[in-house]
Write a structure and sequence with these properties.
homodimer; 132 residues; alpha/beta; 2,3-Dihydroxybiphenyl 1,2-Dioxygenase, domain 1; 4-stranded mixed beta sheet; 8 strands; globular
């Protein structure tokens, strides 16, 4: 079997975060386990084939959101067929543009976003590397 | 093309983090761009086929480590062929066991680790789901 790594995001108000990812990133919700209060114990969604998990804060196990921590130490590098269209749609839906989408010299056309829940995304598409 | 998502980790003392991942997770370093001071501007490694990036802190762009933030809002869900062997090796190399490796009812045998740089990992292998 092949090794994989997938991010599991902590979000304050995870139901709203899931709604946001569906609207802004065209995410498809594949699983949601709410608790008795509507808080999300565990959810899964896909952006195309890329699988991501999320849950509400669980302070009792030290699972805290970027809003509570004051930032995130993990940038989520998302590769999509059309970074420009993805970026524009996400910003229209309320994501904050950190760096605009531009051609990078290393064969990627990409920009950076911060979503309303404090997670940071590098969104890019492959391009031909620049000649040096 | 298929969408992908890959984590990009901020680590305080990224050269030591990269050494740790090589020793503890059998990571293969595939790229390292040091700056003039030896700080890592950008590095890439693989755990089997799973690609991960990392860099030192860059406070000027708000890229801060779990140690500086006081935690992480992203759990890294790593699927490997032998979670028990992976977990044992990682703990021997200095990772902290948060939850031991056990059979989960949802078809995964997994445990949780915190590495010495503050990133959290769920390490698991597929198993047959339990019958309900």
């Amino acid at each position: 079997m092949a090794n994989t790594v997938a991010p599991y995001l902590c979000c304050k108000d995870a139901p709203s975060a899931l709604d946001f990812y569906k609207r802004a990133f065209e995410a498809i919700e594949t699983l949601r386990w709410p608790d008795a209060t509507g808080r999300i114990s565990h959810a899964e969604f896909k952006i195309g084939e890329a699988g991501i998990m999320l849950a509400d804060e669980h302070p009792e196990i030290g699972f805290l959101s970027p809003q509570t921590l004051g930032g995130t130490p993990v940038l989520l590098v998302l590769t999509v067929p059309d970074a420009d269209a993805f970026f524009t749609r996400a910003v229209s839906a309320g994501a904050k543009a950190i760096k605009p989408v531009v051609d990078q010299p290393y064969g990627r056309r990409s920009g950076q976003l911060e979503d309303p829940f404090g997670h940071r995304w590098d969104v890019g598409s492959p391009i031909e590397p620049a000649h040096s």
